Automatic annotation (TrEMBL):
InterPro entries: At4g02000-like. PANTHER family: DUF4283 DOMAIN-CONTAINING PROTEIN, GLYCINE-RICH CELL WALL STRUCTURAL PROTEIN 1.8-LIKE. This is Uncharacterized protein. It comes from Linum tenue.
């Protein structure tokens, strides 16, 4: 839940995470503000962890804004 709080408002954690059954990833349900940038990664004790969002396919991978794919986002225009 603490790590989910870095991304948004944590709602629930996958039961397998609570039991320590998953070692490679954590699945957390988090409410995010889609008018703000979405984090793509975070660091804990010097280790970088990548964040993957389910159900948010229409998000720019460069600037993290929801609503346009990376190819169509205006952040790409110089």
């Amino acid at each position: 839940m603490r790590i989910g709080g870095l991304i948004g408002t944590p709602i629930k954690v996958d039961h397998a995470i609570e039991l320590g059954a998953r070692a490679k990833f954590a699945r957390v349900c988090v409410e995010v503000n889609l008018t703000k940038r979405l984090l793509s990664q975070y660091k804990v004790e010097g280790i970088t962890y990548l964040i993957q969002y389910e159900g948010l396919d229409n998000t720019c991978g460069e600037c993290g804004m929801y609503g346009k794919s990376t190819a169509k986002c205006t952040c790409q225009i110089i």
